[in-house]
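Entry for the shared binder. Reason: the reviewer on the internal report wants the predicted structure included alongside the sequence.
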Amino acid sequence: MPRPLTHASLFTGLGAFDLAAEWLGWPTVFQVEQNPFCLNVLTRHFPHAHRHSDIRTFDATPYAGTVDVLTGGFPCQSFSLAGKGQMDLTLWRQMLRCVVACRPAWVVAENVRGLLARSHGLVLEEICADLENAGYSVFPPLLLPAAAADADHRRERLWLVAHTRSQRQPQQHPAPVPEEPEPGPILLHSLVPAQPQLRPRYASLRDVLREANGLSEGLDSATRNAALYALGNSIHPVIAFNILRSIAYIQCRTLPKTALNYP
């Protein structure tokens, strides 16, 4: 059997990518996050991961060769359709710096739909060109909503998947190799089912808050506000799960079984 792939995350937030990696049986090597509430959550649920609090000072060089898949949802305020901020690629540049230093085989970047339209698509082209110049091949972007995983809200997100153009070969597996799907514009839909057959943990905001509307009066206001802020910036882990599962298929040429601790 091939070894599990290794995962690390930037702009980790509540750890949705990390949870998806856990479902696949992948260990998370490191996380980079500065929000105190999120750090408390990450410390509790991912005790074995190395944590770093500031991407601007984080040096990924010591992790070179230890990470197969690096994920990150770089902050999106300047790309959001609701935002009015000036264009700012500073944090994307920090993520790119970490990619170059860490040299993962795969990079998964996530952002809001507004990135597609910003400057008539030129910003997205610039980001893809940055990855290409760093030695990666970028798959066609995916625009996938949380509703695709049966969430009760749309929450469209743009997903970029890139693979290094190095000579690294897929892991060998003793089982028969299935016929590789024809390359298509949608990586996720061409390789794996749209969602796992089991009910995902935290399928909707209602499941987290335990009621259809409003907030529990028993929650501390500071914790409640911090939780809502973190949830508002988060992604649906089942969407992340399927993207990572697609990567596992390409890397190992076989679909991995869902981890036993998947809910």
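Summary line for the report: The longest strand covers residues 156-164.
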